[in-house]
Amino acid sequence: MAAQGTDPLTVEVVELIGSVVARYHDEYERAAAEHSLTGAQARVLGLLSMDALPMRRIARTMKCEPSNITGIVDRLEVRGLVERRPDPGDRRVKLAAATDEGRELARRLRTSLDFAREPLAELTAVERALLRDLLRRMLGDATGT
User: Fold this and answer.
1) In angstroms, how far apart are the furthest CA atoms of the chain?
2) Whole-angstrom Cα distance, residue 69 to residue 122?
3) Domains assigned to the chain
4) pLDDT at 143 exceeding the cut of 70
5) pTM of this structure
6) What pLDDT score was predicted for residue 2?
């Protein structure tokens, strides 16, 4: 039953978004486990496979405490998937960066996520761009940054 003031269409959209998120999360956790990673480790590795980042930026992106990221990066570093290096722009700052092995594992993880990829394949490029823009707007990020 819809909450007072909430129309049935909004309720359905919220439920559908919840279902998509839950299915994606479950598949992501399974894919990560197949590579002996936690979901959080896989997400950090995915971020770092795109660009080297300071720990605080990773924490902001993941919406968690920097100390949590330190532990995740430590475990990824022990496996040879991530390395720490000085930031060329500010030598006081350490960046976490995926190693070649880490980037390869992140690529394999991305390609193994059928649920994340398959439904989007049914959409045209214009529909995918519209969906992206609507999701950004819902998150308050119309610029995409």
Assistant:
1) 57
2) 35
3) 19-112 (1.10.10.10), 113-145 (no CATH)
4) no
5) 0.75
6) 44
